[in-house]
Structures are given as C-alpha cells and as structure tokens.
C-alpha cells in the first residue's frame, strides 16, 4: 500500500501542471518513504528524512515556487519540446532495469536477516563518528560551500 | 455469566495496569486506542481551557476583568466561541486554489496532533515509545511549516502570502536553535552508568531519574542556558508573542489565516495551541524531569512520597474551594442565580474529582500524569505571561536574534556540555597519557 | 494470517527502480525548471531506498549512513540549484526550460 502511495505520488509529481501540486505530491512521496524506512528497520534514517527532506527541502521548494511562479507559466504547455526523446530514453532505461532484475533474481538470499531496531541510532552514531568520520567532515564542508554558493547566487548585486 | 464477564474485564484492566511497558511497545491495540482517545480528549479540553485562561489571565494582567458574562466568570466563553465558529459561513476566496485551501489546515492539525504519540505522561503512559522519540517530535513539528506555507499560498492574496512566508521563515530559523538545544540535552543523557544515551522520550526522563538531577540543573549553568535557548526558540516556533508578527492583528490583518473563516480557522487555532503544548512537553521532558516529582533525592523517603502523592487531590480540592468561595461572593441579584448555581456545581464536580484522586490506588498511577501536566501548565502560564508583558519583535530583529544570537549560543552550549560531560576522561588522558 | 506475498528485497529494489524511472521521465520531459529539480529529488530518493534496502539485507548500517550522506547532499544541491534558478529568473523572467539556450547559435 505504501508503495502504491509512492508510485501515485511520483506520477503526480511529474504530471501536474501546477508546481505547488507537484510539491505536495513530492511531500507525500517523502512521507511514504519515511514509513518504508521504518519497515526496513532504519528508524534513524526515517527521522532524518522527515526533518530534512520533508520539513526543510520541501519548504525551500515551496518558497521558490511562490517567488517564481507567475501566471504566464500556468498558460504554457506542460511538457517540453523534447518529450518524445525523453520518453524513448526512459523506456530504454526501464528495459535495462527489467533485464537486470529478471536475470539477477536469485542472487539474493531468500529471507532477510532479522534486525532489532532498538539500538539503531547508537549503531549509526558509532559508525558515523568512527569509521566514516572523514566523510562526515567532508559533508560539513560541502554544506558550507552550498550555503555560500546559494547566498552568492541569489544576491541582488554581488 | 454476567459476573464472570465483569471479573474478566476487571482482570484485563488490572493486567494492563501492572505492566511496565507502554501500550505501543506491548503491542496492545485496544489500550493504544484508549490512550489515543484520552490524549485527543485531554488535548481538546486543554485547548478550551487555554482559551479561557488566556483571556482571563491577560485581562487580570492588564487590570481588567475579561469575559464575565457568558458563564460564571466567563467559564462558558470558550464554548460560546466554539459554537460561533462552527456556525459561521465558510468562505473560500474567489481565485483560491481549492485543493490546497482545503488541505492546509488539515496538514497543520495533523502535524500538531501526531506529535502526541510519543509524549510521555509517565513511565508507561505514552501511546508508544519510539526509540527515536525526540527526533520524531522535531520532525513532525517541522511539517506544520508546510501547512502554513500552503495556507498562505492558497489564499491568493497579499497579506496571507507575506504572513505565511514570514511565519515559515521564522519557524525554520528557530528550528535550528531548538535542534541544537535539544542535542545538548541528549548529550547529557549519555552520561549515565551504561554510557549510552538515548533518543526516546521515556529514556530521557529515566536518565534524569538515574542521574538524580533534572537536566536543567546539570553542569550549572549549561543546562540552564540550553533550557533558556529552547524556551525562546519554542515561543518563536509556535508564532506566539513576542514573536507573533506574522499573525498579530495590528500588523498584517491576522497573517496567514486571514482568509480562513469559521471551522477552518478554529482548526488553525487548535493546531497552534496543540503545538504550544507539544513543544512545552518537549521542554518539560528534556530539562524539567518529565513526570518526576520535585526533589526526589533531597526529600526522599516514604513520608515525603506520601505527601507529594497527595498533591493531585489537594490541588483539585483547592480549586473546588475557590469555586465555592467565588460562588458565595457572587452578587445576590436574581439575575445571577443561574450563574451562582453553575459555579457551585462546577465546584462540586472539581471536589469530587479531588476526592477520587485521593484514593490510594488511583493516586499512585495518576501522580506521574499530574506532575507532567502541572509542569506543562506552568509553561502555558509562562506563554500567557510573555504575551502580556513583552512588546513585539520586528521581523528583521527576530531573524537576527535567531541566527546571530541563539545559534552561536546553542553551539557554544553544545560544545561546553560535551566537554563538561567528558571531563573525567579528558582529565585522565591529560594527566596520565 | 499468511501474507500473500512475502516482501523480499527485490520488491524494494523494483520500487526504487520505478521511482527512479519516474524521476528520469520528469527530468527529461517537463518544462518547468522547478519540477525538473523536484524530479531530481525523486531520483535521489529512489537511490536512498535502494541503499537502505540493501543495508537491511546485509545486516549492517553502512547503507543507512550512506543514505544519510545522500540526503545531506540532496539538501545542498537543492539549495544551490534553487539559487541558480532564482538568479536565472531574475534575468529572464521565465522558468521555461526551453528558453535556457544562451549557448545556442
């Protein structure tokens, strides 16, 4: 059922004319994804997804849509001038996926390992600050660069 | 046969009452539903009471009387307001986006009410105890920003749009400061004997119980500064005075909920007060020791336990006594007879509740809920006090304070808390390398 | 109650692939730049789903940590992308992707 919500939301994202509706569909996709993360015994990632993605990035998107959305955009056509090529390319990609998944169907073990989720946060924290410390620092540097970049790009006069 | 059924029901209730897990963790769906219903009803009553209390307390702070006509001392005023709002005409602006207009109050109410799944009223008195409890609460309360943005956009007029943008910018900015203050409290949970912290709300209060000190007083003054940062950020997060630029009537004609009338406006109002109670309960859980009674170590022992457990019943009896006192003081005009009888009846109900709460079996279970609710009620009083005392912040001052004052303070408190917590280890590694 | 279909890892992977496809279609066929950026977020989410599904399969948390990093990256890239969009909009007054052809001769 959750996957149905996600797929319908995804289709709505790419087909609605009004970008605000697309943003709302994306929010439903993100929330359904957080629920699927909970099913996959990853509560920390689910929480991070809700806070960052649904609560932060989508707010950013909605802000920009409001600043940028003018009435002229509503009267234009929805799909761009290369839509046929796009559909063909996507179909080719889909075919590739189907081939990969049907060929590789019996690589995975039948039943997944059972995990407890009581100390998932502690395990993530141990790994994040232990083994992946370097990536953590680089990610913070990346965020700093992104902040500076976004501020510079959106300023009125440099 | 009927006797057997009663016996079974009593046994079922007793088996629940003696469990040591929240209903969600025990997988007990019936009690989960009972708890959800209780939280829902309690929240609605709390919001109604907040409406009345806010008007009366603000009025008394401004040396006037507040609503006095509708019921005795205006006690039925919120009900009159609710009836008025339900009967008002439902106006939708002409060019508005109807789908989003419908969904916006729904989203805000959803975000405000879902938070209460993990709020711990006692060691087993939460709907469920997720082990990412605090993360869940922060995340879901950031979903209400989306609802506000949608509300401002769907109204298709300038004032709501500007109000919504300002309000959501303010909420997002103060979420960062809130997050840092919360993290510095979570760091303190990891300083217990087993060395691992926890994000679950019940675990946080149990960590305070183990370490024997409320986190507000730990590493003095770090806990206090973290609490202060969170207290300021939570007032800004819920768009309350003195940060209510986006919705105050003299500024932007009520901001993002200008175009909402009747029932939809009452949904926004409900969501705002529920959000206030939610962030207050975060503050109470993280810093003020949740459901723990005051002075667990200093005044310990069974007599002090007994005295403290009498507090719920005594509080209600005190309120009943105040009702009777005011009923006696009512003017002796026949016009006021109904009001006097009403007030006396209300006093009788409160007295009965107080007497029920003095029964020992009820006392033990209820005292956790009572202490939690009392602390949250103190926070509500603080909210009303702020509204009556502080002038409003201008928007740029607001944003400046959020980013330039609270964020560095939050970072400093976090670093200092972590250092203070690890001080024994640091000392050891410095002196014995 | 026997579940009709035992949900194996393959189902999550197929769901991820389907979302990825939807995102790719969105990127390649929509006219509005904001929706293209949202489709990119959809692609990143599909990748995250794959990562977490594999992390569940093999029992460690490495996949989840990488998923957290991907979420962080997505936030950074959305911010910069929207900044570029605003700068572009200020110059050209349109969010039509067909009009982004300053390099066309």
List keywords for this structure.
heterotrimer; A: Four Helix Bundle (Hemerythrin (Met), subunit A); 7 helices; globular; C: 105 residues; Helix Hairpins; 3 helices
Short overview:
The complex is a heterotrimer of chains A (158), B (433) and C (105). With 158 residues, chain A is mainly alpha-helical.
How would you characterize the overall build of this protein?
The complex is a heterotrimer of chains A (158), B (433) and C (105). Chain A has helices spanning 2-15, 19-39, 43-68, 71-74, 83-103, 120-130, 133-154. Chain A is mostly helical and 158 residues long. Chain A starts with a helix and ends with a helix. Chain B has a domain at 91-310 and 358-422. In chain B, helix 10 (222-237) packs antiparallel against helix 17 (395-421). Chain C has 105 residues and is an all-alpha fold. Chain C contains 3 helices and no strands. Chain C has helices at residues 9-29, 33-58, 62-92. The radius of gyration of chain C is 18 Å and the shape is elongated. At the A-C interface, helix 1, helix 2, helix 3, helix 5 and helix 6 of A face helix 1, helix 2 and helix 3 of C.
N to C succession of SSEs of chain C: HHH
Contiguous uncertain segments of 5+ residues of chain C: none
Which structural class fits the helix and strand makeup of chain A? mainly alpha
* Intertermini distance of chain A: 50 Å
**Sheet bearing the most strands of chain C, described?**
none
Radius of gyration of CA atoms of chain C, rounded to a whole number: 18 Å
Rg of chain A over CA atoms, rounded to whole Å, is 20 Å
What's the rounded overall pLDDT mean of chain C? 82
CATH architecture of chain C: Orthogonal Bundle
> What is the CATH C level class of chain C, in words?
Mainly Alpha
Q: Biggest sheet of chain A: strands, sense, closure? A: none
The level-1 CATH class of the domain at 1-70 in chain A = Mainly Alpha
SS class of chain C: mainly alpha
Q: What's the structural domain tally of chain C?
A: 1
């Amino acid at each position: 059922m959750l996957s149905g919500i996600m797929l319908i939301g995804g289709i709505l994202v790419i087909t609605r004319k009004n970008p605000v509706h697309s943003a709302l569909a994306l929010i439903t996709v993100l929330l359904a994804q957080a629920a699927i993360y909970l099913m996959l015994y990853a509560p920390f990632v689910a929480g991070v997804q809700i806070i960052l993605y649904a609560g932060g990035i989508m707010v950013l998107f909605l802000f920009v849509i409001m600043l940028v959305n003018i009435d002229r955009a509503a009267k234009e056509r929805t799909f761009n001038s290369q839509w046929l090529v796009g559909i063909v390319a996507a179909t080719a990609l889909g075919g590739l996926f189907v081939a990969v998944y049907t060929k590789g169907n019996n690589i995975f073990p039948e039943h997944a390992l059972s995990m407890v989720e009581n100390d998932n946060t502690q395990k993530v924290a141990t790994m994040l600050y232990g083994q992946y410390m370097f990536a953590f620092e680089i990610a913070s540097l990346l965020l700093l660069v992104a902040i500076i970049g976004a501020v510079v790009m959106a300023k009125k006069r440099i | 046969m009927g006797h057997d059924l009663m016996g079974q029901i009593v046994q079922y209730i007793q088996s629940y009452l003696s469990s040591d897990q929240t209903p969600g963790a025990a997988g007990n769906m019936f009690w989960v539903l009972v708890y959800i219903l209780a939280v829902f009803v309690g929240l609605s009553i709390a919001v109604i009471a907040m409406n009345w209390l806010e008007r009366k307390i603000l009025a008394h702070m401004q040396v006037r009387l507040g609503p006095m006509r509708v019921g005795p001392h205006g006690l039925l005023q919120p009900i009159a307001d609710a009836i008025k709002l339900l009967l008002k005409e439902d106006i939708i602006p002409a060019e508005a986006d109807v789908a989003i207009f419908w969904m916006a109050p729904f989203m805000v109410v959803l975000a405000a009410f879902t938070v209460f799944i993990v709020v711990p009223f006692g060691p087993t008195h939460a709907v469920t105890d997720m082990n990412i409890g605090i993360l869940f609460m922060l995340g879901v309360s950031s979903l209400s920003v989306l609802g506000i943005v949608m509300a401002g956009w769907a109204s298709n007029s300038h004032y709501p749009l500007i109000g919504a943008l300002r309000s959501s910018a303010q909420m997002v900015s103060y979420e960062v400061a809130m997050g840092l203050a919360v993290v510095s409290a979570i760091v303190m949970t990891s300083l217990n004997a087993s060395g691992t912290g926890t994000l679950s709300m019940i675990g946080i209060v149990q960590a305070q119980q183990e370490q024997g000190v409320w986190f507000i007083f730990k590493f003095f003054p770090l806990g206090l500064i973290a609490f202060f940062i969170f207290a300021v950020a939570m007032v800004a997060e819920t768009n309350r005075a003195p940060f209510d630029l986006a919705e105050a009537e003299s500024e932007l004609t009520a901001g993002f909920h200008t175009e909402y009338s009747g029932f939809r406006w009452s949904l926004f109002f409900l969501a705002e007060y529920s959000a206030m109670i939610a962030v207050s309960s975060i503050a109470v859980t993280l810093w003020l020791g949740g459901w723990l009674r005051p002075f667990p170590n200093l005044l310990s022992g069974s007599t002090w336990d007994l005295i403290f457990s009498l507090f719920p019943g005594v509080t209600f009896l005190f309120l009943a006594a105040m009702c009777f006192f005011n009923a006696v003081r009512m003017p002796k005009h026949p016009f006021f007879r109904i009001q006097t009888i009403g007030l006396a009846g209300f006093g009788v109900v409160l007295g009965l509740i107080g007497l029920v709460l003095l029964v020992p079996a009820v006392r033990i279970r209820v005292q956790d809920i009572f202490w939690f609710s009392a602390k949250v009620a103190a926070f509500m009083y603080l909210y009303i006090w702020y509204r009556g005392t502080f002038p409003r912040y201008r928007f740029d001052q607001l944003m400046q304070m959020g980013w330039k004052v609270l964020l560095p303070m939050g970072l400093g408190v976090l670093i200092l808390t972590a250092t203070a917590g690890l001080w024994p280890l640091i000392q050891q590694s410095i002196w014995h390398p | 109650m026997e579940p009709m279909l035992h949900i194996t890892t393959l189902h999550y992977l197929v769901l991820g692939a389907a979302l990825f496809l939807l995102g790719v279609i969105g990127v390649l066929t929509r006219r509005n730049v904001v929706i293209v950026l949202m489709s990119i977020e959809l692609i990143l989410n599909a990748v995250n789903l794959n990562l977490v599904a594999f992390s569940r399969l093999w029992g460690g948390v490495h996949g989840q940590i990488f998923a957290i990093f991907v979420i962080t990256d997505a936030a950074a890239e959305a911010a910069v992308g929207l900044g570029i969009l605003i700068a572009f909009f200020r110059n050209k007054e349109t969010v039509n992707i067909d009009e982004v052809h300053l390099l066309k001769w």
